[in-house]
Amino acid sequence: MNALTEYILLAVIWGVYCAVHSLTISPPFLRWVRNRFPKGHRFHRLAFNLFSILTLIPVVWYSWTLSSAPIFQWEGSLRGLQAAFIVIGVALLAAGALHYDFREFMGFSQISTTDACRSIGKDCELKTSGILGLVRHPWYTAVFFLLWARDLDPAAVIVNSVLTVYVIIGTHLEERKLIAVFGQTYQEYQKEVSMFFPIKWLLSKSKHL
Fold this sequence. Notes:
Oligomer: single chain
Order of helices and strands: HHHHHHHHHH
Distance between the termini: 59 Å
Number of domains: 1
Helix content: 55-70%
């Protein structure tokens, strides 16, 4: 198998993984699980997370086998920018964790009650304070910074590109679910706060300068 074929296969494998990941968390699939397993659907989130991790292992392993010499490296003055990317990514993960219910995100809360929240906001309410007043999806923004804060070989570029596109598409699909849950409240939130980067926040601040 030549290198081009291997890289195409790599993109396909990651694309299939992302598609299956989205399918198994989509509203139609969730409705099917609830109808098919009325007493067991509360285990879905936990099973979904375990399935995602287990199926990710061979995908990551194949990606690792294609590692080669970097075509881009963070060297010299760029090291500072790389460090900034990492710090921003970690800070966004930490800031987001203050507003998300980790037990529900992992699927533990759903096991103990059939009335678990349909989002990952604590107390089943839409949270818009703190980092959520700057961007609507701080964890996904963190993914962008951390993905691209490493030296890049051809395999890494392919994986990062597929995951970046997947996060963008997945976020738009997730926002549909959030609108279904919170309705006009979330639509107003969309108008006031940017999705990934605090553009609207910066524009609002610039008006007062």
